[in-house]
């Protein structure tokens, strides 16, 4: 399992692991892939500084990347704008009443009430500034092209830039802006997705951008067979996120280290997810639970645009996590969840991916005769 991107980044396998966990990112890099740390959870740049320092020291000198959430178009921000005041009372009331109906208790006074500020453009730029003081080899943006000046700054530091795309036209726009690698993320993926499935999307994007722009396949990839399929479609590697949620390293993160979390994903099938705007305000695939279903009931308000929706539900998500109820938990995850039936170390997951990929290629070679 080797493509030109392996030589480009100095990795053994073209497996790119998006994860909010530094422990997962480090383990993937040590196992021969490229761990990519999602930074949106960091409200405090000092905490991000500590985590990236830890990554520098715990990847055995191997490369890693970071993922930020930075829209190309800058939303209204600044001290003169109170984003909280833009959230309608109707929405706040709905969230409070829904949590009460679902039996989700309040948090202890003073705990967990701050929203995730990483969705804000200004905070994302501060994440970039911190990252540039460390040694990432890749900066990825979950919301498409970063602003051109950000791309240029990354290139000045010798860092490649990747951007997610859900349509060929988006990929072409990224290339025009200077993005180096396109992540073709299909409808099956967890988190923010477009409307085109991976089997159709990947060759569309590969053909659109041409042979000189590497493409990573994403969405619905959780096995060696699926990596082989992605490479057969023209991609040079796999961008994987959901599969790492079922690892022992991921369980070192707060709410993920709970019986409810494990129960929620190990019992789910590939049909137990839903694409909705209730998490951030943009379409994202989540585990289907009583919380997501409540937003579909008659009388429920329409989700707000990003970043207002995230600010609206931030405390609710903290309360849901603390409640430890698998029927309510709010979890971004892809349709690959149906294959996540046990918790395993990252190294074992990578080894199985590689072994199944090699067996698949051998089988295809035998068919070719």
Total strand count, please? Answer: 11
Largest sheet: 8 strands, parallel, barrel
Physical arrangement of strands within the biggest beta sheet: 1-2-3-4-5-6-8-9
Q: What value does the Rg take, in angstroms?
A: 20 Å
Oligomer: single chain
* Secondary structure tally, helices: 13
The fourth-level CATH homologous superfamily is: Aldolase class I
Mean pLDDT: 91
- End-to-end C-alpha gap: 21 Å
In percent terms, what proportion of residues is strand? 5-15%
Keywords: Flavoprotein, FMN, Oxidoreductase
InterPro entries: Aldolase_TIM (IPR013785), NMO (IPR004136)
Enzyme class: oxidoreductase
Pfam family, one: NMO
Descriptive labels:
TIM Barrel; alpha/beta; 11 strands; 369 residues; 8-stranded parallel barrel; oxidoreductase; 13 helices
Question: What's the layout of helices and strands?
Answer:
Blueprint: H1 4-9, E1 15-19, H2 22-30, E2 34-38, H3 45-58, E3 64-68, H4 89-101, H5 121-131, E4 138-141, H6 148-156, E5 160-165, H7 168-177, E6 181-185, E7 191-192, H8 198-209, E8 215-218, H9 224-232, E9 237-240, H10 259-266, E10 273-276, E11 284-287, H11 290-294, H12 308-323, H13 346-368
Parallel strand pairs: 1-2, 1-9, 2-3, 3-4, 4-5, 5-6, 6-8, 8-9
Antiparallel strand pairs: 7-11, 10-11
Helix pairs in contact: 2-3, 3-5, 4-12, 7-8, 9-13
